[in-house]
Design goal:
By secondary structure, the protein is of the alpha+beta class. It has five helices and 15 strands. It has a single domain, classed as Cysteine proteinases (Cathepsin B, Chain A, Alpha-Beta Complex), CATH 3.90.70.10. The two termini are about 25 Å apart.
Length: about 230
Amino acid sequence: MSACALCASLAFAALPHGTAAAGVTAESPAPEVLVPNVVFYYQTHNLDCEEAAVAMALTHQGIVLDQDDILRAIGSNQSPVRVDPNGRMRWGDPYASFVGSVDGFEFKDTGYGSAYPPLVKVAREHGAKILRAGPMTVDSVYGYLWSAHPVVVWATWDWKWHDRNDYLAFDGRWIPWIGPYDAHVYTVVGIRPGEVLVDDPLRGRYWVSMASFEAAYSDFMEAIAFA
């Protein structure tokens, strides 16, 4: 969902096999766990970071799915933003489909993205096994990583916490929104004491401190844990 400029598509080699420790927590004594066999992709549109993140997570299960195929499958609501008589921002529902233009910009209110339900539906239709999706504590995210499962997370672009300015979707659902700041979606593929390894579909693969991760993740607290 980031409003940054389009990056070229690219794939990196899969991570080496990691040591899985089922049932462990964020306090695991393991020195480091890297999720094996996750291929990195850059996003191919301004705002399809969540589709790119899911495409990366699917490769862990040997499933190759194009970002545009995911976008077509989930559909989009192209209705523009409006303000109702009560001064409330109204827009589409990302829990139902992609909101706005995938080549739009969040800061211009011309595009936003999609939340986890339509992405989970598409992933399962293509044979993916998903362990959990939806609201998820950060300790649960860490637990899946210590067990060598990739996790797609909704967070902020700048790794900072921001005030929420939720909007009311046309269908009546309140939508998490941090505008004018940008949301972003990552695939988390590794963990070690104090840091997590993220596949960022705009900026590449890198380690980020747990303090920054927790600040950014706390705005949304939603994720998809893949088997």
